[in-house]
Amino acid sequence: MLRSDERILIERAAAGDRDAAERLVRAHQDSVYAYILRLSGRADIAEDVVQEAFVRVFTHLDRFDPRFRFSTWLFTIARRLYVNACQKHRPVYDSDAVGRASNDRSGAVVGADAMDVEVRANAREALSAALAELTDEQREALILFHQHNWPISLIAEHMGMPEGTVKSHLHRSRRKMRLALEAAPKSQSSVEEVWS
Questions:
Q1: Helix (H, G, I), strand (E, B) or coil at 41
Q2: What long-range pairs does 6-14 form, CB within 8 A, spacing at least 24?
Q3: What share of residues in the chain are helix, strand, coil (percent, to 5)?
């Protein structure tokens, strides 16, 4: 969605237009859900955080500064809510839930052969286990950079840290994941099988 179109939707939603609000939710819901799901590893927390994030956004839409990206504001609100949720729940990295949610939201291919499904499930489990080895900051930077294709400057702004620190988190997170996969040869071979 173009920023100019998005700005019009925001203005309409702030004025009480329910259709505009619904379009904003549809435009951003999947990416925020995927982001929080990858951070938390739990679908129940991701659903709660995303729902509460949109409630907060629409309650305080008059506070949005149009000089900035709406998605950055929304992701920041969702991240703060996630941090609050972490105080109540310890994250559990359920790779099956992450895989199911990813497939459900992206329209999984019907009729994929069982071997392919198993190989992908093994790779997803191996990557989820490697993600669990990262610190919260490393995991967040890695997810925003590789899954959501955010530039380093935007990640730095979102996380409130210098770009060099984000680069360090990315470097360390990749190294930690590689070491975690190498430490479990079965996991490494599962991932390599999917990537080959």
A1: coil
A2: 6/70, 7/66, 10/61, 10/64, 10/66, 10/70, 13/58, 13/61, 14/61, 14/62, 14/64
A3: 80, 0, 20
Task: Decide yes or no: CATH 1.10.760.10 for domain 3-88.
Answer: no
pTM summary value: 0.59
| Every domain of the chain and the residues it spans | 3-88, 109-195
Name, in order, each residue with C-beta under 8 angstroms of 119's C-beta and a sequence gap of 6 or more. 190, 193, 194
Percentage of the chain surpassing pLDDT 70?
77
- Count CA within 13 A, CB hemisphere, residue 114: 0
Identify whether the C-beta of residue 125 lies closer than 8 Å to the C-beta of residue 190. yes
Structure confidence by residue, pLDDT tens digits, 72-92:
899 999 999 998 877 665 544
CA 9 – CA 17 distance, rounded (Å):
9
Tokens of 106: 């992206």
Class of 109-195 in CATH: mainly alpha
Higher pLDDT, 13 or 196: 13
Measure the CA dihedral 163/169/170/173, to 10°: 180
